[in-house]
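Researcher: Batch entry, complex prediction.
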Amino acid sequence: MFKYLKQLTSLVAVVAVLFTFTTETMAAKKSKTLKNTQKKGFVRCGVSQGLPGFSNADAAGNWTGIDVDVCRAVAAAVLGDANKVKFTPLSAKERFTALTSGEIDILSRNTTWTLSRDADIGLTFVGVNFYDGQGFMVRKSSGITSTGQFKNGISACTNIGTTTELNMRDFFNSRGISYEPVAFEKADEVVAAYDAGRCDTYTTDKSGLAAQRTKMKNPDEHIVLPETISKEPLGPVVRQGDAVWEDIVRWSLNTMIEAEEYGITSANADSMKTSDNPQIKRLVGAEGEMGAAFGLDNEWNLRIIKQVGNYGESYKRNIADTGILPDRGPNQLWTKGGILYVPPAR
Amino acid sequence: MNFKLKDIGPQLITVIAVVLVFGFFTYNAQINMESRGIDFGYGFLSQESSFDVQFSLIEYDGSHSYFRAYLVGLLNTILVSVIGIVIATILGVIVGVARLSPNYLINKFAAFYVEFFRNIPLLLQIFFWYFAALRALPLPQDAEAIFGVFFLTIKGLYVPAFIWENFNIFLYSIIAAIISIIVIRIHAKKLQETQGKQLPVFYISLGLIFILPLLSFLIGGVRLFFEIPVLKQLATTSFIYEGGVSLPPELIALTLSLSLYTATFIAECVRAGIQGVGKGQKEAAASIGLTPNQVLKLVIMPQALRIIIPPTTNQYLNLTKNSSLAAAIAYPDLVLVFAGTALMQTGKAIEIVSITMFTYLSLSISISILMNWYNKKIAIQEK
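Model: Structure tokens for the complex:
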């Protein structure tokens, strides 16, 4: 009997080492950003300085918009309360530095996903919450109804630090039109200058044009031209180097989109727990272990749907009902003729 | 050699502290950038910038490099600073002298101007001149010609372009005029020192600077044509002027607000300088028979300048640095083009901000050196 004691102790030791190792990796899975967020008690979210429908603060300082809802979804998932978000308004110029320097943990600020941004500057794009494209706005009285009528010498107001500046150059260059770019740091100044007549056209993402149009002195005097000159997939961004946090943000957004696909809304989410469809049950935390991999409980996705709503609700509340873009266009589910298609949550 | 620790100790500690603090920040930045997968390097400067700039003194478009974009921004910053400094100095001297005028109206008007413009934040003034003035200006199609050739519109000030024939002969005539003025001045000074005779140097100079270039037109074959801006229709209600030279409203608003703001401070420097010269100096000068003009030129100003120059140097530096507020109104200066667009397109925050800081530092130091040299030149020479 004692003969095997030595072997037995070494076996126990090996098991013990293995066990501590596994608990170690479980803990390591909880990301640093997640830990810090739970310690602070709020999600640090970078948003725009005011773009109706996407991220805009009312007089009381309450932020609304579909970009805001992404941060609220993450807060609901990791903290249990969609209101535990600290919003930091950022200019286009400041946004990436704020994220890479660790001032914010999610950048949800109508930011275009491009190769160079994803690869170069220490960022990771986690998905697309709005498919957009760059367009032009002109005064109705100018008689211009298509970009084909643009002539040499046209002046175009825009923002600095965006893909807009680059697309604009590609567009005018490919057509051999000489133009005068007038680039401001803040969107409000762009609108003011265009509205005053400084520029013949105002160019940015079409959703932005639609939103800014509502801010003009007389919105009916302006039209957005039908042409779209670029692809602008807008989505939330996180810092490189925290894969778990990246996954949490990605799947918070995916949950909202998939919930719409399965007809789960903020109103019926609780009752869906008893659904027959296992896919629906997984989305409301009634089946499977969908939170453990993130270091979260099993109802993280249920909280998102209950507190923030699905993507369709968010779109309706922020963009359709406010009259910015009542037509969902490409931002419709793939099952309904749009291009919103997310991997399954299983 | 006998260093005492007590003498060099504090310096040594300061140097070590500075090195440690810088070392810590550099090390920290390195670690953070590495952990976030951000590369460090200045290689991007030779890459194609692929963005256009509204207004440039050198040939530039998006196919040029980021370094060229940097030069465009730098030159635009220098342009607005130089114009601003010249206007602010002229205006500042006039207002400063006006504040000492015995005329009640002139005096009070100058005082009101100084108090009004120096007490409103500069950024607000820039916004005011840009947006308020912008809205007040007519659209190109409604603009009235000024003297038949200038058009001030919401899209900018259009001025005729000069088209020269034999421009170099004209240039030589100006250089010749300047050289002969210098020779005559030296001669006049000698004449006064040796024989006490005074030549009307001012009128001779004025005559030379006009007559020599005029001669180049009459016999040198120099021709000058003007290309007057012509209205061109882009769409039903959108027009621009073609031909001529266009100064963007952003440049005009920025120089205007910078000069109006800085001139108030320079005016106060000038006033302080003149008041700093003892009253006895003026009375003594008058008593030996100098005319009031001579009193100001030969007695008061040389002494006042010594008081005026150092604080005015500060104002020049302020104006140069304040020009970075240009970004708010789309004037493509160094901050907007390089620390703005280029930074965003490349994401090289540390590199670009460090280059920009170093550039402003160099600009400021150059102005300082120039002004200190001038200050030394006019200082009392102890003999």
